[in-house]
Design brief:
- By secondary structure, the protein is an alpha+beta fold.
- It has five helices and six strands, in the order αααβββαβββα.
Length: 205
Amino acid sequence: MGPKKPWERHFSLTEERLRIVAEILRDVRNDALEDFSAERGDRAWGHGCRVYERSCEQLNRASEKFDWLDIHDSSLHFIFKIGGVPVRFYRGDPDNPNRNLLRICPGELEQQQQAFAFLDDNESGWFWRIAVATDADERVLEIFMLEVRDSGETRNAWSIPLNGDVRVLHDVSATPQPVKLAPPVVEVRTADRKEEDGDGPSGGR
């Protein structure tokens, strides 16, 4: 029997919802690369922090738009919920999760137990992670939804299909650039025109 798809494990984890979340993570990471400059002193650590913070912020903004998306913990742990199912994300290999992301937070454990109350004890120890796989230039190659245990085991890694269109994320706090307009057309008005318009000596007020 092959790997189960996320919605086969929980009905809330639909392909459409996962694609929306994955595209947010992809667009944020690719967008942040435009700001990266090794010549100005940027390093991988700082870039990773920037990407993580921006990803959290964009997911938080998306939660105001989609009723199925909710932010459970906005701290550095950052736990968001898709239809009640707690999820965390990381950059890396789906077969070799970041060890820090394997630690289960108390709030995550509680939310997981509520979302999967219908499962038996042998199934309830699995938690959800999104893995963002990148190339050598840090651009997104593929994004996976998978289940993990705190022991490091993984299963049911599913590649989330991504739309080919990459959205440009604009900083709403940035100073808007002035818009160049064509010069106005100035027309010299004759005395006759003024009188017709009521602006001349014989015009009424």
